[in-house]
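---------- Forwarded message ----------

FYI, see the Heat shock transcription factor record below. Original note from H. follows.
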Amino acid sequence: KKTSAQPKARPAFVVKLWSMVNDPENSKYMHWTDDGTAFIVTGREQFEKSVLPKYFKHSNFSSFVRQLNMYGWHKVQDVTSGSLQAADDTWQFKS
């Protein structure tokens, strides 16, 4: 019998996301922002090849973003970036 004192199980995606962002081996491709309220993904192509397959049965960045959206994470527009090219390869997500 479950009691209300037991913590609820976290969804697998949320656990994997936390592991991904906190794994030092992934820091080249993803890391928390300085204030810890968002995370940044850089080098989308390499992220798809190097990080996603370690955690998921796919390497599709669009699928990853859809999952993020389902759990309340959304892309933050970088209005301070002077370079469109840099912004295209850098994605910031905030919950």
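H. also flagged this: Residues 12-22 form the longest helix (11 residues).
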